[in-house]
Amino acid sequence: MKAFAYVTAQTPESAVDHVRDHGRFVAGGIDLLGEMKEAIAEPELLVNVKNLPDTREIVAGAERWVIGTNVTLAELAEHAELKRIFSGLSEAALEVGSPQMRNVATVGGNLAQHSRCWYYRHRDVRCLKKGGTRCFAQGGENKYHALFTGSTCLSPCVSNLAVALTALNASVVIQREKKVETWPIARLYESAWSSAKVHHSLAPTDLILRVEIPVLVGGRSTYLQMARRARCARRGRIDSVAS
Hints:
By secondary structure, the protein is α+β, with helices and mostly antiparallel strands. It is built from ten helices and ten strands. The protein has a single domain, classed as 2-Layer Sandwich (Uridine Diphospho-n-acetylenolpyruvylglucosamine Reductase, domain 3), CATH 3.30.465.
């Protein structure tokens, strides 16, 4: 891992200004630090966004719920009222990693994380997403990759929360330069479906601030990771392909 500088931002605007020149946002740091250890990412500056105001709360409203980007996945999974109203979202958070990881990982980090594909994460493999010429998961090890995808990369979106939030018609609020924009969750990933070389639609200086979920009276939800068995002809055995 190369040496880097570290700064704590106090406002979204200052966070964007700091990260502009060879920097990356960091909160829980699970995804980014993993990339740095594997020399996939080599930022010169880490901009800590954990202290940004109004980003650590879950606020229930009559028409919508607001979930700050720095709410941890453990907090999301264990929130009693959210579990009752948006059970599918709570279950999706509970599916992520281990309890130790959920205590650190954040909502914004889960939504903006990069591919977990082992070909992408291997420092010695130059896959399609890292600027190579092929997706090695096509016909290779693809147990936890997308079951249905129009992308040439089989790992266009790896966020559990994204699936549940899309079903709940949620939106994500983003600091984009000096403006604040609201996107539907689908827009957050549409670029990854059209280009194998990106992980989402965010620019390097785009910062997720919060998620907003409309309240659906009488609505119910659940989250279930589906899997099917698919024969891998090239290997002559059975491989699992998970959605």
